[in-house]
């Protein structure tokens, strides 16, 4: 999505928008054992297709996210040997539960020239390869939406995520016309455009929130508030995943990429409170809405035979009886000593380094203040340890917490724009009931429609909504009798800080309007968090920027 100089919006799509349709192949009959999927652990799955084997996201040992996450499942005893002898590896993105340097270090010692494929993301998957000391010599960065041929029957295509295109990817694997779709961690894989009726679909399921709100205290952030928030977020993700399966109707569905645990003793509180979704529960939800879909909740070493699954036969071979499923030992000290050597906490003592990190992570323009305190493993402050504040609005380091309550600065959100565009293509002047986004707390929506299409302009459409202010009575928090003012209150809603819009030309008219048979246009804007909650005022009444404190007032916003 790009903004034009005249204030309009231009949407740029993949060409073709459904790239997997390029060079279509005839679906051939499979034989038992010809295509198998072996679940290893977390997001790691080995696919055997004909004579070739491919492994996804091999995290087989060690921690992820410093010492935050550890493997929940015990990998099969031959997991490393499978990695050393596989034909190629796909790594979806740079997060360390997918790009595991402890695992790749062992691979580099045994087979440094193993072909590894990654998408051409803005933030390179192997950004820190040089500093890691891991010597891999056959990393292939491939363009999005282009088939990569492995042999005459097997090919794959990497697609970007619509919410985090700079980092996240997913993959389609095709063998003899049979497709396997692995959405991995993508929030909106390929902007929501995905093949329907694939043979196998896999994706994440866990949810949870190990950062926000677990690290927030004071005010509304009570234990009960956090518990309810996490429960709501988990359920929202669960429903989103089930809805995606319902929409795409794969023949086989398996939730992966969520089998981790906060195993280190210092993270006991997070482990106890940061509950995650149950893959069995997700599969039950899928079965309720799509009884024809074959669901698989895998155990380490379990094998699914695609041919038998398509025949609705006994398709899964479980690991041998007595196989260890869950880990009970993580060798903390081995990895933590190495972590402490490689990553010094000194970075947090230098404000310019902190500023660089937060800018790199895009933590800017948020109405948020964080206190950074150096503690021991029991979260007790260290004597003479660092203790300072970081203001995310401007990445300053105030001596005291700013006293402010003001409107958030609204910023563009590609995911909301994609949802708006997808709904707008229906050319229907009704609200989208399925506009929820698993990455956002809630989503509001404004609609505008007009005819002919030339009557549309971003400024005039939004002005049409804002002009409803004359029909809104703040003192009673109501609209004038017979008038609308909800568009206005959503536009000015103080807690809303993300927006994404799309305009669609409707040559056959916009349904449910007086010009439904005349060429027109529909303009959709989605907002997060949503506004227009009952008995909640859209903003605190007072002079513009009256609570900015020492901040700059720009366009009546702090």
TrEMBL record:
Instruction: Give the family from UniProt.
Output: Belongs to the CMP-Neu5Ac hydroxylase family.
**InterPro entries per record:** Allrgn_V5/Tpx1_CS (IPR018244), CAP_dom (IPR014044), CAP_sf (IPR035940), Cnh (IPR027033), CRISP-related (IPR001283), RibonucZ/Hydroxyglut_hydro (IPR036866), V5_allergen-like (IPR002413)
User: What SMART domains does the entry give?
Assistant: SCP
Domain (SCP): residue spans on this chain: 396-535
* Highest taxon of source: Eukaryota
GO CC term (a single one): cytoplasm
By what name is this protein known? Answer: Cytidine monophosphate-N-acetylneuraminic acid hydroxylase-like
* UniProt record, GO biological process: CMP-N-acetylneuraminate metabolic process
Name a GO molecular-function annotation: CMP-N-acetylneuraminate monooxygenase activity
SUPFAM superfamilies the UniProt entry points to: Metallo-hydrolase/oxidoreductase (SSF56281), PR-1-like (SSF55797)
This chain's source organism reads Clarias magur (Asian catfish)
């Amino acid at each position: 999505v790009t903004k034009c100089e005249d204030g309009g919006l231009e949407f740029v799509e993949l060409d073709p928008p459904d790239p997997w349709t390029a060079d279509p192949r005839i679906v051939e009959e499979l034989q038992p054992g010809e295509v198998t999927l072996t679940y290893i652990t977390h997001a790691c799955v080995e696919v055997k297709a004909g004579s070739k084997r491919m492994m996804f996201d091999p995290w087989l040992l060690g921690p992820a996210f410093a010492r935050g996450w550890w493997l929940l499942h015990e990998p099969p005893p031959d997991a490393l040997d499978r990695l050393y002898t596989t034909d190629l590896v796909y790594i979806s993105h740079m997060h360390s539960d997918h790009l595991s340097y402890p695992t790749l270090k062992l691979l580099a010692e045994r087979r440094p020239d193993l072909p590894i494929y990654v998408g051409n993301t803005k933030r390179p998957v192997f950004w820190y390869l040089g500093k890691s000391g891991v010597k891999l010599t056959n990393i292939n960065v491939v363009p999005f939406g282009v088939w990569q041929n492995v042999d005459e029957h097997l090919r794959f295509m990497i697609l970007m995520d619509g919410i985090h295109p700079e980092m996240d990817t997913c993959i389609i694997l095709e063998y003899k016309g049979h497709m396997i779709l692995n959405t991995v961690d993508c929030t909106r894989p390929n902007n929501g455009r995905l093949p329907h009726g694939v043979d196998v679909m896999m994706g994440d399921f866990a949810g949870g929130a190990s950062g926000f709100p677990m690290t927030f205290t004071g005010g509304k952030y009570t234990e009960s508030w956090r518990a309810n928030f996490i429960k709501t977020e988990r359920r929202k993700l669960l429903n989103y995943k089930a809805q995606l399966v319902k929409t795409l109707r794969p023949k086989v569905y398996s939730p992966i990429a969520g089998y981790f645990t906060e195993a280190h003793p210092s993270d006991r509180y997070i482990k106890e409170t940061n509950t995650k979704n149950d893959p069995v529960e997700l599969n039950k939800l899928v079965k309720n809405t799509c009884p024809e879909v074959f669901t698989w909740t895998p155990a380490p070493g379990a094998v699914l035979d695609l041919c038998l699954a398509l025949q609705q036969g006994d398709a899964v071979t479980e690991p041998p009886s007595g196989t260890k499923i869950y880990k009970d030992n993580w060798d903390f000290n081995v990895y933590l000593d190495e972590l402490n050597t490689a990553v010094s906490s000194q970075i947090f003592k230098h404000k310019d380094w902190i500023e660089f990190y937060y800018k790199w992570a895009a933590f800017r323009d948020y109405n948020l203040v964080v206190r950074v305190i150096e503690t021991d493993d029991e979260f007790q402050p260290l004597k003479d340890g660092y203790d300072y504040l970081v203001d995310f609005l401007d990445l300053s380091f105030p001596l005291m917490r700013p006293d402010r309550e003001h409107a958030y600065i609204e910023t563009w959100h590609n995911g909301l724009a994609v949802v708006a565009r997808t709904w707008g293509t229906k050319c229907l002047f009704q609200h989208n009931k399925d506009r929820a986004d698993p990455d956002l707390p809630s989503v509001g929506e404004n609609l505008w429609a007009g005819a002919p299409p030339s009557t549309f302009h971003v400024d005039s459409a939004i002005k049409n909504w804002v002009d409803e202010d004359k029909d809104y009575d703040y003192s009673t928090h109501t609209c004038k009798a017979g008038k609308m003012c909800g568009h206005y209150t959503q536009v000015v809603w103080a807690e809303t800080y993300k927006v994404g819009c799309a305009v669609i030309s409707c040559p056959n008219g916009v349904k449910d309007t007086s010009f439904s048979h005349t060429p027109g246009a529909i303009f959709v804007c989605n907002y997060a968090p949503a506004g227009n909650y009952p008995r909640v005022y859209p903003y605190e009444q007072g002079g513009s920027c009256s609570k900015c404190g020492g901040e700059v007032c720009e366009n009546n916003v702090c």
